[in-house]
Task: structure prediction
Amino acid sequence: MAVGLAQDKGVSAISKGAVALVGNPNTGKTTLFNALTGMSQRVGNFPGVTVERKSGYMQLAEESNTELVDLPGAYSLSAQSPDEMIAVDVLLGLLSDDVPIQGVIAVLDASNLKRNMYLVSQILELNLPLVVALNMSDVAQSSGISIDASALSQRLGVPVVPIQANRRIGLDGLKGALLDVLAQGKFEANLSLLPEAWRSQLRTAVDRLTGVSPGILIRALADSSGILLEKLVAHFGPDLGTSVKQLQADLGAGVSVADQEVELRYAWVDRVLEGALRDPEPMRVTQSDKIDRVVTHRFWGTLIFAGIMGIVFQSIFSWASPLMDLIDGRFGALGTWVATQMPEGALQSLVVDGIIAGVGGVVIFLPQICILFLFVSILEDCGYMARAAFLMDRLLTRCGLSGKSFIPMLSSFACAVPGVMATRTIEDRKDRIATMLVAPLMSCSARLPVYTIFIAAFIPDETWAGFGLQGITLFAMYGIGIVIAVPIAWIVKKTLLKGESTPFILELPSYKIPDVRTIFMRVYQSAGHFLERAGTLILAATIVMWALAYFPRPEALLDQQEQARMALQSQGATQEALDVLDGKLAGDLIAQSYLGTMGKAIEPVVRPLGWDWRIGMATLASFPAREVIVAVLGTIYSLGEVDAESASLRVALQQAMWTDGSRVFNIPVALSVMVFFALCAQCVSTLAVIQRETQSWRWPIVTFVYMTGLAYMCSFFTYQVGMLLGWG
Amino acid sequence: MESNSKLPQQTMPLTKWIAGEEGVIEAIEGSNRLALRLREVGAVPGALVRILRTGCPVIIQVGTSRFCLRNVDAGCIRGRRAA
Result:
């Protein structure tokens, strides 16, 4: 798949294989990736391991496109988080079905050179052509740091190129240097930092083993967890394991290689940087430190945090509405136009009532998703997110999570899928799984359609102590997930994921002006992902639901209708009377459809929640993806529609009746539906991503069962209490 | 390693430092994953360190990087305060 383009255009050996982009977190790696690949990037999976793989093409020479793979940020190749593990797997070539890596660009933050060089020292030991990109060289320079790139390059034996990825400065030099090292091909691993005795022992061992490079052997030796060694043995054979054990005993002299690695490397880094890096005042108080005096302050910082969150959620609702109205209008006009262009019948009904009404009802929410992702990516790119995690740590520790759970949980307000994936930065497995289990309780953007429609239809537009009742209801729906997540996380950490509290170390990067390109790409990709869902899963569900609600259309009923109509017409009845007749037929048809039959069967289960068979069916249909309910209700009600003027689903819901003529919906019913949707695990994508990330069926099943159980109970409680309070 | 220094009153865990104080790291105690990670990101003996915010979590500056960690973890870093 991904190889395609490179091979099609391949003119030289250079275009074979991909180049990996590696670096510490917060080095501007993503900014560089976007600057190099532009719109050619795509998100796929690494073969076999179903881990997200972000790649794109960069033009290195005329007629030659080379694939660039953006690896997750890593401090070290001694991986501690799942994110770092991916970087290690790719660099060591452990993903055998993937495009081979033919070279590496290491991105370094020039203001943080010493720490960043640690990772470089590890990459130099792999047999991969390497170019070092000194990013944010302007920032370093302005704070008095001077780096002699050519001296550094000489000592490392690889090109060192100063760049400013955000301003796209130095990229041509970087590409030229990369082209050069790729053309040279075979790269001799640099083992200069190891003691001589180690080097000779390593070489002897490497000669005995086939296909194992010194770099791989070093990684195996330094692996204190044993996880990487296990993988390497599976890949290269049991001889590697024996060699590693032998070498551990010979080299360690009582101290494990892992323990000696750090000191060896930093001693080497000091030697390499001596004279090449001049930082006259490394402990100076930076602009970021000054900002942090306020932003990480217990009181002022918390206040600022609350303010930012307030602005985020406020703008999601107020900024988005004009755009949403625009989209709504367009789909409405499209439906009307198509209806005039097509002959009446099943096909017209499928297109207008099924596809346009269904998919359109979901696409409306695109602006809100874009705005939420806009904020999340701005906050992340400017460096604020780490401060938010710092502030939230004390709170999250109480329910057994950590500050690192904050970013996944905030992302889950947009969509739980990226939220669950964002847990990869959490090193501890128990914390990571606990975060995944509660992340879907955050009200994602797919719940918004449900809240918006039911609130607009049933919650009176009144103010209450200065606050709009509708706004309070929406706030409560967002609040319920958060409030319930606290005890759930606590219980999960006390039972299924027992263990002591885990270490927490989080870098607070320097603040910077967010990069427009990076933010645009992030928003663009999430919008694309959302539309893809609307075009596939939701479209399919809509068509199925339309068919179930449209057929079988019993002949007897249609004939009866025709006779009644003719009788009325011959009596000279008004148009109004004819419309009433049509409406009754539409209602009868849907009640006798397959959907109607199934809905009646499940009605006893949903009756205690105050629901009629239509809500029950629509809810059942929305287990694959919760936003389907809007599409399905749209389809059911537009099929059973009386008057073309009241096409709006809101009006249709308000007018829905039980067979005895009383209204289906009142406030307790609407609240009960909303609470159910707030808490229920109605999202196949989320469950699938939890399965993928945990490599186990246990956790998606736990998530589904607890969330659905909770949803039913809370929904029941809401309806019953609401009725007791006389809100009906 | 060097935990029994000649001037024990000067070498103490970072949790005992007050905000704004700076000094030099002398030892990272323990060999668990956290200690390894702290050393990998530069908290090695000889590195400059400063306390930016106390409480839990604390914010410390190690070399040119800033990290936040919990008290229980910051306590395994011992250092000598600058006079």
User: Anything to note?
Assistant: Residues 285-516+663-728 of chain A form one domain. The mean pLDDT of chain A is 84. Chain A touches chain B through 41 residues (CB under 8 Å). The two ends of chain A are 57 Å apart (CA to CA).
